[in-house]
Request: fold
Amino acid sequence: MAAKQYSFGKHYLVEFIGCPGERLRYVDDIRGPLLEAARLSGATVLESYFHQFEPQGVTGMIFIAESHFSIHTWPESGYAAFDILTCGEMFPDKAIDHLNGVLQAARVEMRILTRGFSEETS
Amino acid sequence: MAAKQYSFGKHYLVEFIGCPGERLRYVDDIRGPLLEAARLSGATVLESYFHQFEPQGVTGMIFIAESHFSIHTWPESGYAAFDILTCGEMFPDKAIDHLNGVLQAARVEMRILTRGFSEETS
Reply:
């Protein structure tokens, strides 16, 4: 029994742990670093959107030609959940390194999952 | 050695496989079903954004109070990559069932990952 893989992209799930809360509070803390991370990764940015939670916390999303970037922050916990879904040639590590530098995480954890499916061929 | 878990949410990665291409082509095919899926899941919708690729294919994103929904479609392959990141009490299965009904996937695959981290406590 063989299987053919149909891969449409890689999904990077990144946990930024132990960040100073003041790095994660406001859209103005996150917008610039996220857009710069996308640029460094080689993504083609289409649109970007940010939401400010009260009293603090941010959701940010960038639509890229290659799929998306998203970030959600919990300043009170020093934690941010970041993901990149990419179906193109990109350098996600450069984006993650840049964000890590800005967010000053004590620890970073990453999982990489293939998006798509496989089909049995015989 | 014990570890304390800090869970900030569940990330549902869903593959819709073998959909009729005409279900996946245009923003107008996806916007209504995605918003209805969010409503059925119990999410609090904040904002939604859609991008039309030419000649076909869609990126859609909903910001919810509990984090996000995203979808990316490949009509020519009958495939859509869907994800829900939720940090609240929701019913993601209801969203997935609704989208599955509309997109008419021949097969659905789902992975559920916990977002957050653990710390050793002793």
Observations:
- The two ends of chain B are 5 Å apart (CA to CA).
- The first strand of chain B starts at residue 3 and ends at 17.
- Chain B touches chain A at residues 6, 8-9, 11, 13, 15, 17, 46-47, 49, 51, 59, 61, 63, 67-68, 70, 72, 74, 77, 79, 81, 83, 85, 87, 107, 109, 111, 113, 115-117 (CB under 8 Å).
